[in-house]
Design goal:
By secondary structure, the protein is α+β, with helices and mostly antiparallel strands. It is built from eight helices and 48 strands.
Length: about 775
């Protein structure tokens, strides 16, 4: 086999850094040599070795049979299996979350019998390793001296901790044991769930842990489980918190990295999150069953839940989540074997059996509310896995929820910080942004009126841009201004162009006399560009300091673009003019909001050193600026939304040190005062979106908790609604994919359309 072929096979057989697994039996005619992947590395192993010890039925070492194997470049080693084998592998690993190779090694353990189909050493075999030894030597137990029984029991206990209640099954119903997962079979095929399962569990251990902390966490887990099959509070809380939807595993980035590393295997974020409890409610994603954008007053039937072996003959009940925004929703649960039904809140739980199908129907009371109900088991367990959710004898088994978010096709290219603009005909223009680490000039169009093929690729912009703006003009054209193109010899920040939706043509604006080369007078990156109500002109304010040839370094600039009147043709270029900027503060990543009287509120931002709290108003009638005090909190990368009553809602943002905040405040346009909201945001976030809804409430969605979102950390999937009537925020569903630095617009249908964000090709709508 060629070197390339060997690499391809083994790449398919490797997964998360400490949990690369697989390497199924590759016996030749001798049938005694098994190739295996150690699991301590992904991709090329920098160093590593495997020690193989023959043991007896009680896993006691047999003297004189210790063999040491050196791993090759892809973690492959060969072994001659005996009746019972004890394996330990030590080596550096590749962390898919951080895209780095560990600075030190970890040691993983495994166990095997010569009838096993394959030899594997991975994170799961390591977690069960010590527990098996305890069970197999436990006097008077059914597992004493019985390796297979002890292994089955230990593996069930490990799965139970992660809220996986049955022996692990792939999507085809095949039982996949710890020691028989074979990544070489490929992702998203018959054994694709095994790949995703391993990625999910391994990522929990790797998250926020260097190799030494990782080793400590693994050892702590082993020590806890070996005696009683339970995990103590410290170890359990560490792992559970690692799965938090706020600070935990970014499955979007993880899937992107894995897919790039192991082409042609494809990993999808939802497939990996299926095996995580990312919101810490005691239910893994696989059993979080939802109906998207359900109509109020209409009964919906959820995907069915099948009772597994672990819950045979147990009692199930279903209850409403007390924190639900839809507390009056009705629900019934039907046992497909007995035909018995029960309602939410019933005091008479159903007895279920292996193979029973649980069918839940519910009727939402709210059109875009998010509500949940939980299927619970009342069976007594030997110990509590997570005391926050497994209270007494009740354990959450499945979750049924109405989610106001729904997938809406996919961009052809994943992109961060694109512009998303609603055209006059109801279509949506998505332009530029960061693609594969570089500014892009790619453009796509989304047409919500189409039932199929909603997406189309358009002619590209003249230059690549990220940190630019796109403003719909009164004549239907789109003005794109500035941005960073990554080319200092031809600075994009000082350029602008027009998109004509009638012709599909992009036209670079004519040279400006004051810069001699580029149309705007100044360069702008992460600025604002606002259509003025009364004049149809565009106010361009501030932007990141950009110093390059022919472009004045600035982030204090304000200039106005005046479109060529009455022209809807590619040659329409318009004119630029500088405006009084004596009162302007230095700022970029600020917000600009058109008020009901036509004035523009500029708030917050970053001045190159610290966040800004100052705010000012631009009056287009007098071409003057007026300072209007300071916001309660200095912030940048926040959102600003004009409410129906004329006030402006400011949410989230980042502060010094790029820390996300939960602060929210209101600007009163009459009193010109700033006041903190009665309650803060439920989630700290910046680089999120905020969209006024038809009912006057505001959708707050996505974002990130820190400034490393482009490095796969801290993305937020949760959404919440702001209710002006009560001055409060209430959690309301989850984005299909966590995302930050993306765009949102209100469609003519009343749905909110969202696209873009790090590593995300999928778009979605909120109803």
């Amino acid at each position: 086999m060629s070197r390339f072929a060997v690499k391809l096979v083994m790449v398919l057989g490797l997964l998360m850094g400490i949990a690369g697994c697989g390497g199924g039996s590759s016996s030749t005619s001798t049938a005694t040599v098994v190739s295996a992947v150690s699991g301590v590395a992904q991709g090329p192993v920098l160093s590593g070795s495997v020690k193989i010890q023959e043991v007896d039925s009680s896993l006691t070492p047999v003297s004189g049979t210790l063999v040491s194997k050196t791993m090759t470049g892809l973690g492959i080693f060969s072994a001659t299996p005996s009746k019972y084998m004890d394996l330990n592998a030590t080596g550096n690993y590749f962390d898919e979350l951080l895209n780095v190779t560990s600075t030190g090694p970890v040691t993983l353990s495994s166990y095997a019998i010569n009838s096993d189909a394959s030899l594997n050493i991975n994170i799961l075999t390591t977690l069960a390793y010590q527990r098996i030894k305890t069970l197999i030597n436990k006097a008077g137990s059914l597992t004493q001296g019985n390796f297979l029984a002890a292994r089955l029991q230990a593996e069930k206990e490990v799965l139970n901790f992660f809220h996986i209640r049955d022996p692990f099954l792939d999507q085809y119903g095949n039982v996949i044991n710890f020691g028989s997962m074979d990544m070489a079979k490929g992702g998203n095929t018959k054994y694709g769930d095994a790949n995703n399962f391993m990625a999910a569990i391994s990522s929990l251990f790797e998250f926020n842990n260097s190799f030494d902390k990782l080793s400590t966490l693994i050892t702590g887990f082993q020590s806890d489980i070996q005696d009683n099959g339970c995990i103590n509070t410290n170890i359990g809380t560490t792992l559970i918190n690692n799965a938090s939807s706020v600070v935990g595993v970014n499955t979007t980035a993880l899937a992107t990295n894995l897919s790039a590393e192991y082409t042609p295997v494809t990993f999808l974020p939802t497939d990996i999150s299926n095996w995580l409890d990312q919101d810490k409610d005691g239910v893994i994603g696989k059993y979080k069953l939802s109906v998207a954008q359900a109509a109020s007053g209409t009964q919906s039937t959820f995907q069915s839940y099948q009772v597994g072996v672990a819950d045979n003959n147990e009692s199930y009940s279903i209850i409403n989540d007390p924190a639900s925004n839809d507390p009056n929703a009705s629900a019934t649960i039907t046992n497909s074997t007995t035909g018995m039904t029960a309602s939410i809140g019933s005091l008479l739980p159903l007895t279920v059996h292996t193979g029973d199908t649980i069918i839940v129907t519910r009727t939402p009371a709210l059109e875009h509310g998010s509500s949940m109900a939980y299927l619970q088991s009342t069976a007594t367990k030997p110990c509590s896995i997570d005391t926050r959710f497994d209270t007494g004898s009740k354990q959450n088994v499945a979750r049924f929820e109405f989610n106001p978010f729904a997938p809406e096709g996919s961009l052809t290219t994943a992109r961060t910080s694109p512009t998303v603009t609603l055209l006059q005909d109801g279509r949506v223009l998505i332009a530029g942004g960061m693609v594969a680490g570089a500014a892009s000039k790619l453009v796509e169009l989304y047409d919500p009126a189409q039932t199929n093929n909603k997406w189309s690729v358009l002619k590209t912009m003249n230059v690549a841009r990220v940190g630019h703006t796109a403003t719909l003009l009164n004549d239907g054209q789109v003005l794109v201004v500035g941005g960073d193109g990554g080319d200092k010899a031809s600075p994009t920040a000082g350029t602008a162009e027009l998109y004509n939706p009638t012709t599909g043509i992009w036209t670079a604006l004519t040279a400006n006399s004051k810069s001699n080369t580029y149309s705007p007078v100044y360069g702008h990156v992460y600025h604002t560009a606002t259509l003025l109500k009364n004049t149809g002109q565009v106010l361009v304010v501030g932007g990141n300091l950009f110093a390059a040839s022919n472009v004045l370094p600035t982030n204090t600039s304000a200039e106005i673009y005046t479109p060529a009147s009455g022209v809807l043709a590619g040659a329409s270029t318009g004119t630029w003019s500088i405006h009084n900027m004596n009162s302007l503060a230095l700022r970029y990543n600020h917000t600009a909001t058109v008020l009901n009287d036509g004035k523009v509120l500029i708030a917050g931002g970053f001045n190159g050193n610290i966040p800004v709290s100052s705010a000012e108003l631009f009056n287009s009638a007098t071409n003057t600026w007026t300072t209007v005090g300071s916001s309660v909190a200095a912030r940048y990368k926040h959102s600003a939304t004009l409410l129906n009553d004329g006030r402006v809602l400011i949410t989230g943002g980042a502060t010094t040190g790029a820390a996300a905040i939960t602060s929210a405040e209101l600007y009163d346009t009459v009193l010109k005062t700033w006041t903190a909201t009665k309650f803060p945001l439920g989630n700290a976030r910046f680089n999120h979106v905020a969209q006024l809804l038809d009912d006057g409430n505001v959708l707050i969605a996505g974002g990130t908790t820190n400034n490393n979102s482009l490095n796969n950390i801290g993305l937020v999937s949760g959404a919440e609604l702001y209710y002006p009537a009560t001055d409060s925020f209430i959690a309301n569903g989850k984005l299909t994919y966590p995302r930050a630095a993306f765009g949102a617009v209100m469609l003519n249908t009343g749905k909110v359309f969202m696209a873009g964000g790090f590593g995300v090709t999928a778009a979605e709508t909120f109803k």
